Amino acid sequence: xxxxxxxxKTAKKSAKKVAKKKPAAKKKPAAKKKPxAKKKPAAKKNPAAKKKPAAKKKPAAKKKPAAKKKPAAKKKPAAKxxxxxxxxxxxxxxxxxxxxxxxxKKKAAKQREAVARVRAAAKKRDEAExxxxxxxxxxxxxxxxxxxxxxxxxxxxxxxxxxxxxxxDxxxxxxxxxxxxxxxxxxxxxxxxxKEAQRRAEAERKATxxxxxxxxKEAQRRAEAERKxxxxxxxxxxxxxxxxxxxxxxxxxxxEFDLKFLFxxxxxxxxxxxxxxxxxxxxxxxxxxxxEDAEMGDIQFDDEGGEGDTMVxxxxxxxxxxxxxxxxxxxxxxxxxxxxxxxYGYSQHSGKPIPRERLKAIPWTTELVxxxxxxxxxx
Length: 379
Known about the structure:
The protein has about 375 residues and is mainly alpha-helical. Among the domains are: about 5-120; about 240-375, Four Helix Bundle (Hemerythrin (Met), subunit A) (Up-down Bundle). The protein has helices at about 5-20, 30-35, 35-40, 40-45, 55-60, 65-70, 70-75, 80-235, 260-295, 305-340, 355-360, 370-375, and strands at about 245-250, 250-255. A two-stranded antiparallel ribbon has the order 1-2. α1 crosses α8, α5 packs antiparallel against α8 and α9 runs antiparallel to α10.
């Protein structure tokens, strides 16, 4: 491309030189004498040819017929003729140079287009190769992933088969252990049943003896209690009347116990009731659990273990404590009922008011301390 620029410059320079020298063609004397020379418009319009060098070359070609007329040529000076011929040659050369420049420019444009096409083709080829490499890499990656997945599944199947085999072995072993445990449990149960039958027979004999002694003692105690109760009842017939007062929220006040104290006692009774109900339920559950453990064969009833008697004692203790808690709950319910009718805080035997300190300590009590010591009531 650098070699073509000088050619363009020379073409422009030659065109400018021709444009500058063409005014000399206007001063031809032969053109003034002959009317044919006056009609030539190309010689007068030479200034416009400065912008377009190709237009300036045409007048030189039109002057060739005038050169045939030898008589007119004789009158022209030789220097002028030479100048006209040289101007024509220069114009032709400039035109040819311009055409060559155009041809070179077109050729350069075509070369640039060819280079651009080659580059575009190379770019497309590179992109196609890149996409092919990417597809190949993706295919290789997918194949690798499939191989890894297949290997993983194979390992998982092997592990699952090994696990199943191990589970079968463990199940067989466990089943054998269960059978052995059942056999031992059956033996223990037979021994326990025999020992329990023996213990029950001994217990029944002792219980019979204790019951006989208890009945005798109870008869004596009842006789004494009946005598004392008769005396107390005799005095209880003379109970003082209870003066009742205002009622609010299901509680009736009296002269000795106001509503504030009675509300506080009701809260104590409800709190103690919830606690005792929970305690009784827990003790009953423990007693039932002891029976379930005994039925499952977890307790050893042999001479070395000694667990049978301990379990019976614990169960009887739990049931006794649960019964006591239930009995206290019944007494609390009775006390709550007495709150509603205005009889709370008075002895059921003598009708006297119970001290507040005793009621705060035992909110469900229904007797005085001296009555309790004397044996009239239970509390």
